[in-house]
């Protein structure tokens, strides 16, 4: 078998994965696209290992290492996506920008000027705040 067949298949899989990462908004589909890209790399590693007739089979060993890294990545990635879905109600990547800290967000005291109850909390005297926390 020629090296061109697995190489072309690997390029097609990698391009589909890149398209999936760039075009999708769902975090789970982005993770699936990253997995597709890693599988394309694994296909290339094994194909070139067979083509070079390496006696140590270093391409196949590196492919196994990549599979282990991909399994860890998908486990952690899915845990993060599930946590975000439980907190936000959506796994839309565009809505994940809200999780970043804002420059005028909460400071060390816990006061957040953007919070809906911030205006109501500003009207309460400091003595009542201290009594409420005690």
From TrEMBL:
Q: Where in the cell is it found?
A: Cell membrane; Membrane
The answer, when asked if Lipid metabolism is one of the entry's keywords, is no
Pfam (any one): Oxidored_q2
What are the recorded Gene Ontology BP terms? ATP synthesis coupled electron transport
Q: What is its main location?
A: membrane
Composition bias, Basic and acidic residues? 95-105
Keyword Translocase listed? The answer is yes
Query: In its UniProt entry, what is this protein called?
Result: NADH-quinone oxidoreductase subunit K
Q: Which organism is it from?
A: Streptomyces tsukubensis (strain DSM 42081 / NBRC 108919 / NRRL 18488 / 9993)
Q: What is the lineage of its organism?
A: Bacteria, Bacillati, Actinomycetota, Actinomycetes, Kitasatosporales
